[in-house]
Amino acid sequence: MEKLVGKGKDKKPPVKDAHISGQTTTSKEPTVPSSNPTTSTLGDPMPLEDKRQLFQEKVRLSNEACQNSDFERAIRLYTEALVLDPANHILFSNRSAAHMKLKQYEKALHDAAKARELNPKWSKVRVLHSFFFNNVFNI
After folding, report:
1. Rounded to 5 degrees, what angle do the CA atoms 97, 126, 130 make?
2. Is residue 129 part of a domain?
3. How many domains does the chain have?
4. Quick one: how far is CA 106 from the chain centroid?
5. CATH number of the structural domain spanning residue 112
6. Is the full-model pTM beyond 0.70?
């Protein structure tokens, strides 16, 4: 995710693991006026800096939702963040864990497999993938 954060004084540090970062807040979700978070209300492409800020906000809010055990909201927010960064293995892994909490095992396995496809060397996703095959599906 570090590639998403530009260099500069006013930039926030990248969130290494959106599921475990430990951030808490009471703010509400930002509203996205169009169904596609990468375009403005007029259908114009959203500036890159705005996309970065929206992405970081979605990750922060999904963190908050997981910490509050609101896994349905977390899944929705991870999905919205993935629209902005569809190659982010951490988001797929975190969404997989949220699906697991809701016992949506097939969806969780799908996201774990996608995370593994995007970054096969990442240890957290290997553990998730192994868990499925050893415990959930008894293979």
Report:
1. 80
2. yes
3. 1
4. 18
5. 1.25.40.10
6. no
What are the pLDDT tens digits along the chain (139 aa)? 333 444 444 444 444 444 433 333 334 444 343 445 555 444 567 888 899 999 999 999 999 999 999 999 999 999 999 999 999 999 999 999 999 999 998 999 899 889 989 998 877 766 666 666 566 555 4
Question: Which helix or strand (DSSP H or E) is residue 81 part of?
Answer: helix 71-84
The answer to whether residue 96 is domain-embedded is yes
List CB contacts of 113: < 8 A, sequence separation 6 or more: 129
Instruction: Return the sign of the alpha-carbon dihedral for residues 40, 46, 47, 49.
Output: positive
CB–CB of 37/46 below 8 Å? Answer: yes
> Which residues, other chains included, contact 135 with Cβ-Cβ below 8 Å and sequence gap of 6+?
none
* 67, part of any domain: yes
Provide the domain limits for residue 108: 46-139
* Residue 12 resides in a domain: no
Tokens coding 38: 């990468």
